[in-house]
Amino acid sequence: MSSLLRGPSDLPFFDRGIEDITFKGADAAPDLPDRQGILAPAIAQRRMLDELMAPRNLESFLDEAVRPELPDRDILVPVNFAEAVDEALATLTSAAEERQAVDPQAARGLQRAARVLTEEVGMRELLRMYRSALLQG
User: Fold this and answer.
1) What are phi and psi of 55, to 5 degrees?
2) What is the pLDDT of residue 86?
3) How many CB atoms lie within 10 A of CB 115?
4) In this predicted structure, what is the pLDDT of residue 68?
5) How many angstroms separate the CA atoms of 108 and 18, rounded?
6) pLDDT at 110
7) Are 118 and 86 in contact (CB under 8 A)?
8) How far apart are CA 101 and CA 90, in angstroms?
9) How far is residue 44 from each of residues 13, 40, 41, 65, 91, measured CA to CA in Å?
10) Cα 92–97–102 angle (5° rounding)?
11) Contact at 8 Å (CB) between 116 and 96?
12) CA geometry: angle 22, 23, 27, nearest 5 deg
């Protein structure tokens, strides 16, 4: 009976109720950082036991061979990725202009790559616009 009369601060975490958990006071956790500033999570690593017990097959070898090495994971942050794509597009465009007189075949290839990258940027912008429209309702 005395356990029912205790205050909410005396109860264990799972017995406090939803009101105490959702309406935190001054001791609440600090605000989370902006979504653009959050680093991407580390590439999922399999547990040691899974690695020991899982048989190696062709699919796992192909997966390891195709997965790129990322020396700088900060590029996976959306803002940094957009900056890297813009920089790559500028580099491709300038390289195509420089190669035009020397090697027209290589210049056409670079221009084609710049066009593909421009289309990719446009598609990402369209996706961002649709996502924003969906979130706004």
Assistant:
1) -75, 140
2) 93
3) 14
4) 81
5) 63
6) 93
7) no
8) 19
9) 31, 11, 8, 16, 32
10) 115
11) no
12) 110
Alpha-carbon torsion (97, 102, 108, 112), positive or negative: negative
Amino acid identity, position 97: E
Distance between CA atoms of residues 57 and 48, nearest Å: 17
Structure tokens at 76: 């996976």
Task: Flag residues of the chain having pLDDT under 70.
Answer: 1-52
Residues in the chain: 137
How far apart CA 115 and CA 136 sit, in angstroms, is 32
DSSP secondary structure, the chain, as one string: -HHHHS-GGGS-GGGS-HHHHHS--TTPPPPPPPGGGSPPPPPP---HHHHHHSPP-HHHHHHHHHSPP-S-GGGGSHHHHHHHHHHHHHHHHHHHHHHHHH-HHHHHHHHHHHHHHHHHHHHHHHHHHHHHHHHH-
